[in-house]
Amino acid sequence: MSAREEILARVREALGAPEPVTDSLAPTGTRGAGSPDLGDGRRSYRTASGLDEDALVELLIDRLVDYKARVEVVGPDALAEAIRARLEGKRFVVPEGLPSEWLDPSLAAAAVRDSRKAPIAVDRLDELDAVVTSSAVSIAETGTIVLDGSPDQGRRAISLVPDHHVCVVPVETIVGIVPEGFARLDPTRPLTLISGPSATSDIELERVEGVHGPRTLDVIIVR
Amino acid sequence: MTAVSLGMPALPPRGFGNISATEPFPKAAHRELGNGQLRANLGHATHTIRDKRLRVVSELPDWEALRDAGSAIKTEAMSRLPELLTQFEEQFTARGGTVHWARDAAEANRIVEGLIRETGSSEVVKVKSMATQEIGLNEYLEERGISAIETDLAELIVQLGHDKPSHILVPAIHKNRTEIRDIFLKEMPGVDRSLTDEPRRLAMAARAHLRRKFLSAKVAISGANFGIAETGTLGVVESEGNGRMCLTLPETLITVMGIEKVLPRAQDLEVFMQLLPRSSTGERMNPYTSLWTGATPGDGPQNVHVVLLDNGRTRALADRHGRGALHCIRCSACMNVCPVYERTGGHAYGSTYPGPIGAILSPLLTGVEAEENSSLPYASSLCGACFDACPVKINIPEILVYLRGEDVEAKHGRGPASSGADGKSNGRRRALPTQMDVALGAASWALSSGDRLGLLEKGLPVARALAGRDGKISRLPGLAAGWTQSRDVPAPPSESFRSWWKKRAAPGEGDGAARGGAE
């Protein structure tokens, strides 16, 4: 018997007569027979925050600042200037799908462009100072920004190797809580959830920001 | 009286690897308790995380509802495991990954070695993983000329210090900053000799040390916090970015995942990504979480494998009173609140899985009679703090008590061959009666009859002779010596209550308690 067959046989035997719970989070009454009593309303946790845009932005900023990220809120017209100010004098990479109007003409020529078809080698990325990306979803309550590998966010390597990540958060991508965030994401895309710059608390539980991931995280909220 | 002769199915095979205590817990704990530095480090660390956890948990108005959902999802996942594992395999394979199955630690190690050999590489970078620690992968590869480099800061400290992890989340929790600096100075090639013990300086030294390894690594090995059956997605929850480095830059990625880590739906992540970070590090969210599904063309590793590991998990699953231990999401909240762990530290448990969860998980994976694991269910005061802290509501105290019963059955079982709580014979041999059996037998004889008890009570004045001038007995013989090792026993009274009562009680004077209660 192959390991696969044997393990599956062991599992079936261990479970005995199968009476599977078909969907533990289905509304009460629609569960399959034989499911354990899990109480009423298993999805009784919050699935929406009900916060308005002002509150969402305020909460997200509070959380990001707590993580020692630098945060700025700008109007669409001021975005290119805000990015320029962050990148002046730096060598940086951008994903091929980054909207061209986000880069000030003085910067556009200097940008190293990366794509899945023409990826920049890791050693070359390591020589660059910064990266600019957009983002897919941000979760205010936890201060989490999610990248999903879309063309305006690029390959995972470009937002990882350079030491400074400038991340643009369009206001319409901000949600209140974690379930709202996952509802907007496609789990089969390569997803990276980022909550502040990298950190460790491995030495006497003392938090040190900035280990292997980008040590500086700049968030620019566009609204 | 074997399982076979009764026509009952045999229990699934036990797990092997770093999940067995090599000496009884009391002995190991006694040694660890002598280390004052360890106790100071542990006390500071566990209290710090404990306070942080309480703070962020109290922020969520629906924390209890999330715990209920987490527990329900895990119960569902276990009950549908065969179906979910095959669905996971189908999805992971359809998206360009390869699935391997390993019955035990040895088979998993062989599979991983084979996959590394195929790449021609002799060095791999590793993301912190409980599963690979459990199977002893690093030691196995090292013996075969493949160096596995731990990239999590704490795991690196443990690896460079030729030490063992003592905590699931903070494996070097038993070392303080000065000890860590000394390890780096001694073991880290090319380290700056002026290194101080400031945590930031130490973290930056690790960054510099590992940077070249990350950028040049061809093969990475990881564990997984979750595997989603619906989509074939794997997830790693981390803080430092070493995980992202390993999961993104190398060409080959090999993930070792226990079969119990599978979740039915992608939506279930919305529950566990709230429960895990808050319970684990006491943060609203951990800095980085990576989710990947097979291979993504042009982005990240293209040669992607997962090894699905049994190693005793089916044995634990077969135990209907113990299977809840498989719901564990390895957050470590239980050890941070445990009064026993806080004092003994993780090494005393002798297993990859320390603390309250380890005290049930290790014996369930190996069988309670294996090696010294039978002492682990006693490594608890049954205070219940672990149950309250557990984000998926594993009733650890109840399973501890159940396993103590199993241990007693295995060692001192009476009558026909002892049986598991599911009624199946476990085919254990009965051992010779111990002092405890004899003492309990005698107590049962005496206490079951008033006459016998009365007769024995006449011997009380004799026992008084054992007491010292302070009216205390400080040393009892035989088995009872364990009790008096750290306690005195008051001398017995000169007369028993029953005999005193008989002498004084006149009719109508026996209702004092009832009067008191009416006031």
From TrEMBL, chain A:
A Pfam family per the record: LUD_dom
Residue ranges, annotated region (Disordered): 18-42
SUPFAM superfamilies tied to this protein: NagB/RpiA/CoA transferase-like (SSF100950)
InterPro entries: FTHF_cligase-like_sf (IPR024185), LUD_dom (IPR003741), NagB/RpiA_transferase-like (IPR037171)
Superkingdom as given in the UniProt entry: Bacteria
Residues of the LUD domain: 124-222
Protein name (record): Lactate utilization protein C
Source organism: Sinomonas humi
